[in-house]
Amino acid sequence: MKLLMKKASVLLLIVFAFAQGTLAQPPNDFCSGAFATNADGTCYGPGLPQTTTVGAGDDWVGTLGCAGNNGEVWFSFVATTSQLDINISSGTIGGNLEFVLVQSLTPPCGGLTLGGGGGTACGGSPLTATFNGLQIGSTYYYTISSTGSDGTFTSCLTSTVPTPVAGQDCSAAAILCDASGFSQGTSAAGFGTQEVTTGNSCWGSGGERQSKWFKFTIGCSGTLEFNINPVISGDDYDWGLWDVTSDITCGSKGNTIACNWSGCKGSTGITTCANAIGEPGRVSSGAGCFGGPAAWNITTLNVTAGNTYALLVDNFSTSNSGFSLSFGGACGGGTAVIGPDANFTGSLDATCMAYTSTKTCPTANSTYLWTYGDGSTSTGMNGSHTYATTGNYTVTLTVTDALGCVSTYSETVNVGCILPIELTNFSAELMSDEFVKVDWTTISELNNDFFTLERSDNGITFESIATIDGAGNSTSELNYQFVDRKAINGSAYYRLKQTDYDGQSELSNVIGVNGMSSFGEISIQPNPIKGNGTLSFVSNAIDNVEVSIVDLTGKEVMRTHFSTKVGENNIMLETSAMIKGMYFLILTDSIESTTVRFIKE
Question: Is 233 exposed, middle or buried (0-12, 13-18, 19+ CB in 10 A)?
Answer without folding.
Answer: exposed
